[in-house]
Amino acid sequence: MWNGSATDQRVTTFAICGHRPARYTITSAADSDPGGPNTLAGGAQCPAGTSILGGGIHVSSPRPAVTLGASIDEPGTQWLSEVVNSAAGSATVTIYAICAA
Measured in Å, how far apart are the chain's first and last C-alpha atoms? Predict the structure, then answer.
């Protein structure tokens, strides 16, 4: 969590644990956003015969001007994410999909 305000904020994180289901795998896709008024959208695809359980996004060198626009499950096989980089300077983005049969 990045808090750009002068006010303290609280964040709560939960972990949901269990045994890995059949054909559990984490896939990823990386790309770079050159900066400026750009939006980078991409996705990580699940292997054939598996479906999305969840996903996430990692932005290398996060700055206040790099924001996550969305992360969604796209028809059960892909995790899509959008990053808006309004800063000058590149941001490397890795999108992750958690998949299982």
Answer: 31
